[in-house]
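Format notes (please read before filing issues)

Several people have asked whether sequences and structure tokens are stored in separate files. They are not. Every record keeps both together, in the order shown below: the sequence lines, then the token lines. Line labels are part of the format and must not be stripped during preprocessing.
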Amino acid sequence: MEKKKRTSDRIYLALILLFFYAPIVYVVIFSFNSTKSLTHFTGFSLRWYESMFSNRTIMESIGYTVACAVIATAVSTFVGTITAIGLSKSRKIVREVITQVNSLPILNPDIVTAIGLMLFYTSLHIKTGFATMVLAHIAFCIPYVILSIMPRLRRLDPNLAEAALDLGCTPAQALFKVIIPEIKEGIVAGALVAFSMSFDDFVISMFTTGPGVNNISIYVYANVKRVNPTINALSAVIVYVITAVLLIINIVPVIREKRKERNHVKEEGLEGTSGS
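Then the structure lines:
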């Protein structure tokens, strides 16, 4: 009975993975197709990658997307981290109220946030463009950063900062040398979420950008109705970059831990040799 249950669980998991990853594999495979066909693979070719890199509009959209995501991630991570640390030291009622307010942009549909920001810019007679799109991305990324950092702060010893101050640290030193290293996993997680949300956003970008400023999502939307295999190449490049980043993020900590273990073993060996 248990074996049957395990087999059914594995089949169920395999079907879920197939459902999520089959479209991605399909796009990557047909990005190397030698013809425009999206149903028959006729031969291996890099023509669509060459077409992508030679297309000025695509390269501009990639540049806008990366620049917007990097700026939004940096600003939202900084603001979200400082806000989360401040909330952890605030009174309970203040913390609860701000936490509820922080959850509103996350619970709101993107279209509502997009229309609200568009009307806000219009009412202030602000010309939409790259700057307004970046500000919009920062606005909806900050709540995700705060939400990622708060659980780490709840598990943090509340007396840690006071102990650092008692030992001679300035408030800035206590913040950067004691608190932030203890919550760095939450900060990194928040930054990754912010980057992915900004990089992938379409609805809010569509309503807050101006003429001539398009990110990848807007470009894909404008060209997806036509048979354009260059879109497959662009999507495949995004998959490559995200996969590489995820591998680096997951492999680097493992390598560091192994190095620490090796150094620890060497130190213990040296101490044992010197003691004998």
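For reference, the curators noted about this record: The chain has one domain: 31-275. The radius of gyration is 24 Å.
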